[in-house]
Every structure is written in C-alpha cells, then in structure tokens.
Amino acid sequence: MKLSLAIVAFALAVPTAGFAQDSTAVVSNGEYPNTFSSGSANVSPFTNKSKRFNDWSISVGAGVPLVQSADLTSIKNGNGKNLFGYSAYVSIDKAITHAFGLKLQYDRGETRQGWFNTKDSAPSGMGYQEVGARTQYDAISILGDINFSNLLRRVDNHSPFRWALHGYAGVGTLAYRAYQKDAAGQRLMTEIKPFKLGSMFGQAGAGLKFKVNRRIDIEGRLMYVMTGDDEFDGGGHKYSDINQREEQVSDNFFNATLGVSLKLGKHESHLMWHDPLQEIYYKLDVLANKNQDIEVCKKGDLDNDGVCDDWDRQLDTPAGARVDGAGVALDTDLDGVIDLYDKCVTVPGPVENQGCPTTTAPITGPVTETETKLDGIEFDLNSDRILPSNTPILNNAVSYINSSSGSYNVIGATDTRASDAYNQKLSERRANNVKNYLIQNGVQSGKLNAIGRGEKDLKYPECEPATKCPEWKNRANRRVYFEAK
Q1: What CA–CA distance (Å, rounded) separates 71 from 130?
Q2: Angle at 217 between CA 211 and CA 220, to 5 degrees
Q3: Are 405 and 483 in contact (CB under 8 A)?
C-alpha cells in the first residue's frame, strides 16, 4: 500500500510542477482529480495559451496624492500642515502569465501644496513667497504588473491563497494645469499638454490585493509618480523666485489609493490568482488521507498495454507492442506496419514485404531496346537532392547506358502534395539533376533527355490525395526512372 501510494504521489507531483490546472475548480468540488476533471485532459501551462483561466479585468480606485519632492510640498509645508488632494484611476488589465501582466491606466486628480489650501482665503500677514498652489492633472500610462506572491511562494505553503503582493512600474504621458494663489488672488502658472516629449512621466509602486471572491478583488496601492517637470508644483517657471533650486529637475508625489478589480471571463479562477503549488499539495493530502488502495483504472486495461481503457484509443493492441500515451501501437516509419511486425523499423516499406522497401533486381547485361525503365531512384519530400543510397543504382545506370547504342529519357515525377505547377518544376529539377549526374560520370549528353511529368505519372495512382496512402507509397511516387526512346 505505502509503495503504491508513493508511486502515485510522485507521478502526480512531477508533471504538475511543470504544468498546472485550475486549482480553484479542483478544491471547490472536493473531489479527487481524475482524467476528465483535471487530469491529462485538463493540464495547462502557467501561461493562458490553453484558455483555461480568466485573464482580463477592469480596475477602478480613488485616493490621496501628496507632493513630496518639490519646492512647494503637501507634506509638512511651511505651516507644519499636510495638504490633501484627491485622485482616481481606471485601468484595463491583462494577465500574461500567473506572475506578470500589463495595465493600460488612466489617472486623474488634483494635488495641493504650498503654505495654505487654495480653496481657502489667503492668510493675512503672509511673508514673501508664502503661497498656496494646486495642480490638476490627467495621465495615461502603461504599467507592468508583477505578482510577487506567485514568484516567492513557499513550497510548503498550505494556507488559503487570498492575499497577493503586486509590484507596478511603467511610463506614460502627463497633462496638467498648475495654479498659484497669494494675497493678490489665484492665477494659472503652467499648462502642459499630453502626448509631447516633455510630457512623459514614470511611476512605480506596490499594491496589496485581497481576493473577496472569484469576481472581486480589493487592493490598497501606493505609487510614486516622477513628473520629470520642475513646474508641476505651481511655483512658476524653473528659475522663478519660488522654483529657484536649479538642481531640482522633477516634482514628484506619492499617490495612495484604494481600489476594486472586476475579473472578467467564464472560468472558475483568474490566471493571476492561480497557485500551482496549492494543487500539488491538495492532491498529496488527498492521497495521504486515503486508507484504501487507489483505483487507477476504473474500467481496467483490456489489452495490458499500460494504458487504462478509459482513454485507450486502441483496445486490441497486440501483446508486446510498444504504445504511445493514447494506447496506439507505435509505427516509427509510418508505413502502416507497426514496429512489432516491421522488419525495417526506420525505413518505410510495403506490408507485403514486412515493412521493408522493395529492391529492383540488378541488371546483369547491357540495356536493350526492349528495356523500358529502371526503378528505384527515390527522393525526399520537397527535395531534388540525390540521396547517397541512390548513387550505386545511378553508377550502374552509367555502365548500362554506355554499353547500349540507344538513347534514353530521364523521367522525373512527384507525389500529389503541393500544386500542379510546383510539382511540375520540382519533377524537372529532379530529372535534370539525375541527367547531370550521369553526364558527369561518363554518359554522353546526346544519349539523355530530361523530362518532368510532375504528379501526372504516379507509380501508385491511388495516392490522390497523398493522405490516402502510407508514406512508403508516396515516397515511391517521388522518383526518377528511365525510358528508352
């Protein structure tokens, strides 16, 4: 019992380490995974190429921006107070793998900075440069999303997978209007339009997500926005009395938000919430708690080939035959003779010759006028290259033709794959290659005439289309032979 349990546990753990399933679906029904619910038919890689996970979502959120690195700040300003603005975002999210995704995000907000809130009246008795400012901004950005929880998850974790730490970073275009207020009133100081070289910005940060259910996530996020602009804070142009620190080249701010994500799709779980390790340990826990032997094959193995009848596609495999994962006997050379009975496993041949190619009986005398052709010169698919195995036959042909007084047609042919025009040109190249070979080895050029007949001269006419025949017949159609003129 213990030995069989260990073998089954190992067999489950190894493939699942490289591939994974919809773990939420497995746990939710409380059943042991089988080949139909989550076995070989349900195994998926960590990407969503097999379309077994939801991978789209929409996120919205709101928060508070605080200008931190600028001449006019929101945090501990000149009066020792914090000035809070507001922000909001909406994004379309795409998960690429269980640990990485992309976001197309739109942000809008208003920062407040300086000595007082511009919504209030300017304090009396203000000193020089003691001003208030606010900046209204809009931004569009592309963000990369890294799921650190899936990257760093411990291998012995058995806890529910409800929290996830994400990291974000990206670039975009920024538009803003910066206002300044003093005792004389409020005025527009700077306006920047989006989609220009000077309006590019970057942002990076982290978020902590909580999975409410399969549709809803809640996330707290803290982002750091780098505007790349010294006039964003409302202090005026770069070298104004307020923005007089020449080394300051970027006004930056924090943006703390609370948001919600709606996961789209029909599947049970989202790719970013897929925990491959949970599935492994769920299966092992189920096995460890079983007090009876596990019934691997419910319907048995009728042909004893090691493949259960539940998914065996060939229930009458001959004893001793090697099979693939579907229980079908192997035929390495695809000639219609399984390896168990094939005397030439790697070379295609007809069934009547036990899977070995037929050979033309050698000609012992000179070629006569009644000798019409010489078979056996075959070619690989889509190739006009003379194979090394054919050179002995061609060398014999040199002797035969030179010993005769007649002349010969060198006929090239193809199988039925590809178009008629292509096969015609291919057959001509094959015939010309053989003709040139014979001439280079001593045959007089006047005795030879190269002709291409394309797919119109099949040795096996029943191979139309080629899929109706085993490969050895199609190969026999790809040939060059000789005819006496």
Answers
A1: 11
A2: 100
A3: no
